[in-house]
Amino acid sequence: MVTMVSGHPENVLLNMMIDERKHIRELAARRIKVARETDRSHSSSSSEIRKFTIPKFNFEATDYCELVNWLDFPRLEPPITCKFTENDLEEIIKTGSMSDFEKYPCHTQAVERHIKVVTDAARSVCGKERREGYIRAKLESRKDMAKYTTKSDWKS
Hints:
0% strand, 46% helix, 5 helices
């Protein structure tokens, strides 16, 4: 059972790694191994910024792992699995559990704060430059504010 699948092929691949069906997990492992081999053969690609292109979805798919045409998408490994060894990958495929992922939250409080600032900027001003100015001004004003690290520091 899949909880949520984002359209990004790397996220689909991560979901495939923890799928309840073993053959889907094995397919994900093979795709990651091919991506690693491709990356080794293109040594300069590790220093380049990976540009995301929106894939075309197969809306006739009967399973989430068929949403993306894997032959059209460049073979890239999800960044979070880059630290995994071959043995780690095999263990994940065998068990269907990635307990190490629990150490890496997908959203932190800082990310949520910045999302709020960007949303406020979009509501308040029009235009790319004005939004950027609004965001920069907001972040600069936060730097000037007093910081209270403990309750005893907070005095009215």
